[in-house]
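Notes from hallway chat w/ T.B., transcribed later so I don't forget. T.B. wanted the structure written out for a chain they're using in a teaching module, and asked if we could keep both sequence and C-alpha cells in one place. Agreed to drop them here.
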Amino acid sequence: MTGSRSRQQLRLLPPPLPEPRGPLSAAVTALLRGSDPGRVPSPEGCSAYGDDLQLALYVLYELHYQGFHDVPDSLEWDSGLLAHRGALEDRFLGALREDVPIDDTETAERALDELQLEPVGDDGSGLSYFLRDEGSLDHLRAYAAVRSLYHLKEADPHAWVIPRLHGRAKAAMVAVEFDEFGAGRADEIHAQLFADLMADLRLDPTYGHYVDAAPAEALATVNLMSLFGLHRALRAALVGHFAAVEVTSSPGSRRLAEAMRRVDAGPAAVRFYAEHVEADAVHEQVVRHDVVGGLLESEPHLDADVVFGIRATTHLEDRLADRLLSAWREGATGLRGEIPAEGGQPPLGPASRGLPSSSQAD
C-alpha cells in the first residue's frame, strides 16, 4: 500500500455488547441487558485463561471505560455485578499467582535487567521478529486488530495508579502519562496514533470493534491492566506492568516499524511504532529509576509486587505470542472467525482462505 490515508478520528462511542463465549459471559451480558440469566455459574470449573472467563471479565471491566451501547452507566458500580467480577478476578489472579511464583530472592531491579536482554545479533524468535522478517500484510492486519483492544486504551488503566503514588514516583508517572496522552495535543494521543495505523491497514478504528475476533489470550493482556489498575492493593503490580511495557517497547517497536515499512503499510502505520522507538527509550529510564525507584524508596515492602507485575505481564504476552505464531505457521490467522472487508481489503480470517478455524471455546 502506498500514499497517505485520510485521517479518521478515534471514535469512542460505546460499542455493542460482544457475543458470549460460554455460560459466564452469557450470564454477564444478560444482566447488562436487563434480563434474568437465572443462576449465575461459578467460575471455579472454568479455565482461568479461557474465552468464557476472559470475555466475562473484559465486559465487566469495560463498564469503567467506555461502557456499552444501551447499557446504563449506573451499572458501573452495581453491587451484584461487582460481586460477579470479584469471583472472576479471584480465579484469574489465583491462576497468575500459581503460574508466576515469586521467591524471596527476586527483585524488581533484576527482573527489569532480564527484560533488557536482547538476542545477540538481534536474531530472535519472538513475534516481533517474525513480523519483521517474514510477516505478510495479512499478519500485520490480524496483529493490529487483536492489539487494538489494548492500544486504543493504552494509557488509561495506568492512570489509575497516579492517586496511589506520591513524591518522585507520582511526578515521574504523570510525566510519562503526559506523553502517552499526546502532551496536550489530541491528535498526538497514542491511542489516536494507533487509530491512524488501523486506517492505513484498512481496519476499522472504532473502539472495541474487534473484540469478537480477539482470542482469549488477547483479552487477558487487557484484563491484566484493569485488574491491577482497579485495586489499590495491586498498585505496585501495575507499576511493574507499566515498567515491563516501557522497557520492552523500544526494541520491539523498532522491529514492528521495519515490518510496516517492508510491506509498505503506510506512513501512519510506520509512525506509530517509530514514535515508540524514541519515546519509550526515554520512558524506560524514567520509569525504571523514578517510578519504580521512587515507589520502592518509599515502600520497599512492595518490591515483590513489582516483580509479580513484571512476570505476569511477560507470562500473558508470551501466551498471546505463542497463540498467534502457532496459528500463522499453520496458515491460520489466530483470530476468532473472520474480520469483514474494510476499505477495499478482502476479508481477513480462516474462511477467506479455506483455512481451519482458529477459534476455540473454553
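Follow-up for T.B.: The longest helix spans residues 267-298. Might be a good example for the class.
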